[in-house]
Amino acid sequence: MNHSDLRAKVPSLAAGMAAAEHSPDVQLSQTRHRAALVASWHIAPGSTVLELGCGQGDMTAVLAEAVGPEGRVVAVDVAEPSYGAPVTLGESAARLMAGPLGPRIDFRFATDVLDPSVGFPEGSFDHVVLAHCSWYFASLGQLRDTLARVRPWARRLWFTEWDMTPASDVQLAHLLAVLIQGQVEAAGSRGQGNVRTPFSREALLRLLPEVGWTADGSVPVDTAELQDGDWEVAACLELVRSEERLAVLPEPVRQLVLSQTDVLRALAEPRGNRALAAYAVTAH
To answer: What pLDDT score does 2 carry?
Structure first.
């Protein structure tokens, strides 16, 4: 499906998401971003897709539209269906399954592909997709093991994540919020946030050949209309207000986090913090 075809479907895809009832404009921009990605990936009608880290199904819906009625998307996430707010993963999935895309989607929550009981025959999928989910992994080692695990199952990998190299000063607040959250996690204070293990594009490109993937290329992805800069700034400030999370940090790390948070407060805008750019990597 080409870009123009998917772009025409964006309003209806966004409206089909449960979160659209709470923030229709936000859902529209998030869906538009994912539609542009999928349109550039040349996923043919009838394809089979394994999506890891599907969350509430923002990318799942776009993938299901791209594969058409003869295709199939297996959407996997380690989180329980009750996870998420103001809409849970289960509520969002139920909304999608009740709509026209439902027959093309197989949601599997509370599922870890590293569990030996979870598996697929070799070559089961044309594509495996990880879109804005890899920083949620507990460690880079866990991501490495996951990419190795799925290697026999799919012929092609499509990977998208935030680019840690800012293109302008207005993206620094998003970057600093990400780095602070990553430092807290790395120092042993574990949480349930979206950012647990931030890593660079270069780190991913070094990792892929270690687990049998050959990168075909990497391209920048525009994120100008996305709200994730605001979301991560808010998540970071909420994190440092948690005495429980900070109390377990070594004192030098705690002081470093607090000082960096002072800088974040000075940099961040009340609203409209520009998101970092993203990148897309393809591999076979």
So the answer is: 57
Residue pair 49/127 in contact (Cβ under 8 Å)? The answer is: yes
Distance CA 47, CA 69 (A): 10
Instruction: For residue range 152-174, list pLDDT tens digits in order.
Output: 999 999 999 999 999 999 999 99
Residues of the chain above pLDDT 70, percent: 99
Report strand pairing: 125-131 vs 48-52.
Answer: parallel
pLDDT at 141: 96
Q: Is the pTM of this model over 0.90?
A: yes
